[in-house]
Amino acid sequence: MTTASIHVGIGGWNFEPWRDNFYPAGWPHARELEYASRKLTAIEINSTFYGPQSPKTFS
After folding, report:
1. pLDDT value of residue 38
2. Contact at 8 Å (CB) between 39 and 8?
């Protein structure tokens, strides 16, 4: 029998309703991606499908 991995992710990370729920109360908006990346194994960034992104996109 083989084992498989399941990657759980989200389609973005900058959602107002998640503040003070998924993200700790008072967590800085600029660090939301950092926090989400430590809790989940995948984060989809839809805009990267359409073209190259600048570092500013992720800050």
Report:
1. 94
2. no
> Quick one: pLDDT at residue 36?
95
User: Which residues make Cβ contacts (< 8 Å) with residue 9, sequence separation at least 6?
Assistant: 40, 41, 42, 43, 44
User: Model-level pTM?
Assistant: 0.67
Q: Where are the domains of the chain?
A: 31-59
Specify the DSSP class assigned to residue 38: H
Q: DSSP labels for 8-36?
A: -EES-S--GGGBTTTBPTT--GGGHHHHH
Q: Is the C-alpha dihedral spanning 54, 39, 44, 5 positive or negative?
A: positive
